[in-house]
């Protein structure tokens, strides 16, 4: 099977940048379109049980977009080094697996490449597995990069 549209979600971590490198190498080998996304939640405190000021939220949003853009710039550099063009987008929405799967559908993606921190035991129980959630929320193939 040949993958024509590859999506790589980026959170700025080293493992997500490693996933971007793998995705770029696959895109180059297959002549595929590559897209990197970074998700920004504009109301991360929606379920919080404390009050926060509008200034606090404004500062958070500005910093979140800045961080997302910086991570995507790193991915552009990785893709450029490999010799692949890449589209990047900051996606506004909740940082959930569903946001990735919905974005993948909208973009006509046929492969998702993402990093996994490989948490085990109690850490996995406490923190969950975002990669596992993406696997459960899409019918698309998902390539998990662990290093």
TrEMBL record:
Pfam families: Usp. GO terms for cellular component: cytoplasm. The keyword Transcription regulation does not apply. It is found in: Cytoplasm. InterPro entries: Rossmann-like_a/b/a_fold, Universal_stress_UspA, UspA. CDD domains: USP-like. The keyword Magnesium does not apply. Keywords: Cytoplasm. SUPFAM superfamilies: Adenine nucleotide alpha hydrolases-like. This is Universal stress protein. Belongs to the universal stress protein A family. Residues 3-146 form the UspA domain.
């Amino acid at each position: 099977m040949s993958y024509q549209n590859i999506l790589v979600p980026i959170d700025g971590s080293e493992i997500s940048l490693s996933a971007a490198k793998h995705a770029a190498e696959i895109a180059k080998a297959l002549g595929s379109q590559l897209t990197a996304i970074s998700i920004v939640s504009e109301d991360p405190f929606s379920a919080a049980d404390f009050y926060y000021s509008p200034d606090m939220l404004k500062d958070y949003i500005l910093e979140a977009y800045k961080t997302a853009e910086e991570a995507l710039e790193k991915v552009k550099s990785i893709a450029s080094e490999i010799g692949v063009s890449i589209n990047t987008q900051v996606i506004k929405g909740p940082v959930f697996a569903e946001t990735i799967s919905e974005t993948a559908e909208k973009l006509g993606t046929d492969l998702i490449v993402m990093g996994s921190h490989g948490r085990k035991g109690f850490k996995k129980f406490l923190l969950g597995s975002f990669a596992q959630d993406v696997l459960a929320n899409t019918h698309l193939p998902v390539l998990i990069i662990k290093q």
